[in-house]
Amino acid sequence: MVQKRPLPSREPSLELSYDTITRKGLQSLARTVSPPPAIKKRKAEANEVQKSATAAVEAGEKNVEDHLTFYSAHLLAALRPQIPGVPRLDHQEWVEMYRRNAGSGKGCHYVIHQHDHPIAGTHYDLRLQCNPTSSISFAIMYGLPGDPNSRRVNRNATETRVHCLWNHLIETASHSTGSMLIWDTGEFEVLPNRGEKEIGDSTAEASEGEHDRSKAKQTEQEKLRTAFQRRKIKLRMHGTKLPNGYTLALRLTKDNFRSEQPKKPSRRRRRQAPGGRQVRDSGSDVQESTAEERRPPRRGHSSLSRLSSPPASPRTKSDVTDEDAQADAAAAVASDDEDEAIRASNAYTGATNDIGSVHQRKWFLSVDRAQSGFIKNTTKSVSGFVETNWARKRAGADLAEGVIETATGFDRFVVGGREIERSVVTGRLASEILADEGVVGYVPRGLWRAITE
């Protein structure tokens, strides 16, 4: 006869209560949420929480009184050794140039940022000072054209939000916005367009001398405003990386001309982020294959619309107090009001859109080859085809009198993208900025290539 073993008694003293588990530090056994979050997700959220100081200032989450002092100290500490043949602007010259233009009605500062955005991809933001505190902005997908004989000499330049002028100083990185470096910076000059009358010129009785004197007194900001309203802008760029005499032409076609701001978008884009979680894109200043307007950022002044921060840990109803609910509701109302103000004015908080900038208008950008110092040569082949070539113009070729021949135009250059292009201020690559800002595990968007044909 087999003797049965007695069943183990279930003594109440052997049961682990919630208090006992908590005292022993076994909080993982008392979770109200199942299953526990993945390790990769926790790491990705930790990276976002540990946002760098520059990224917090750029996003509007931290305020500083003197942006120039703040960013100057940060970029000075991040300087890389000079590489022969790679253009670099002396740090003190960079500081003095910004001081000369900031807050001035005669300022004509510009910056070209390389922005490697996780959703919009690598693109280049051209910002032009339009008043003492603000700048109009254009997003250019493949950078500025550098070959006068290229088959793709034109670019699409998408008009974006008006930025604060201190955004010209930014080099930073984060998971939600990617990396941003100063590709080139300097001062611009607005050139006149031939055969056009001045806007608002109702003084027909004025003499030619008075008219010439009034034009001479115009600042670059006033010239930019006039050209912008005409929808034809011609700019000569005096920078460090762009060659001498480089002249841009921006043109807005009648099909793209509108004066009203776009309405609130109906949907948002999503992207898989590191750790398997989805990141919501509140909108992008760069449109790729759709004409639908994107949602503007909730806060900040970046060249692209702000991505949402990682979602907070889910809270149960018992965790939410009346004070929490009231605070969340007030924050939502304030955020919606800020979104609506940005959308209506097409200007980030602190910037002034007094030039009539409209979000997401498409401009055509190209090199003005004649103004940049090239001449057009046309030849006819044996088969009858006409071939056109733009060559650098020569001047002062009278060697008999001892005049040295000087060349205008510039040597061909190609914008190589995030793996090649370096900051003109710090000499850093995009990957080095990500490392300096403590961004780990960032996944850039692929399928970008330089225009070489």
Blueprint (SSEs and pairs):
Blueprint: H1 18-23, H2 39-49, H3 53-58, H4 67-77, H5 91-101, E1 109-117, E2 121-129, E3 134-140, E4 154-159, E5 163-164, E6 172-174, E7 178-190, H6 208-216, H7 220-230, E8 232-238, E9 247-251, E10 269-272, E11 278-281, H8 322-345, E12 362-367, E13 374-380, E14 386-392, E15 394-395, E16 406-407, H9 430-436
Structural account:
The structure is a single chain. This protein has 453 residues and is an alpha+beta fold. It has two domains: 38-193 and 216-310 and 323-373 and 409-453, no CATH class; 374-407, no CATH class. The protein is built from nine helices and 16 strands. The chain has helices at 18-23, 39-49, 53-58, 67-77, 91-101, 208-216, 220-230, 322-345, 430-436; strands spanning 109-117, 121-129, 134-140, 154-159, 163-164, 172-174, 178-190, 232-238, 247-251, 269-272, 278-281, 362-367, 374-380, 386-392, 394-395, 406-407. The strands form four sheets. Strands 1-2-3-4-12-9-8-7 form an eight-stranded antiparallel beta barrel. It has a two-stranded antiparallel sheet with strand order 10-11. A two-stranded antiparallel ribbon has the order 13-14. A hairpin with a 4-residue loop joins strand 2 and strand 3. It starts with 17 loop residues before the first helix and ends in a 17-residue tail after the last helix. Residues 228-239 have a biased composition (Basic residues). Pfam families: LigD_N. InterPro entries: LigD_PE_domain. Residues 113-248 form the DNA ligase D 3'-phosphoesterase domain. Residues 201-340 are annotated as: Disordered.
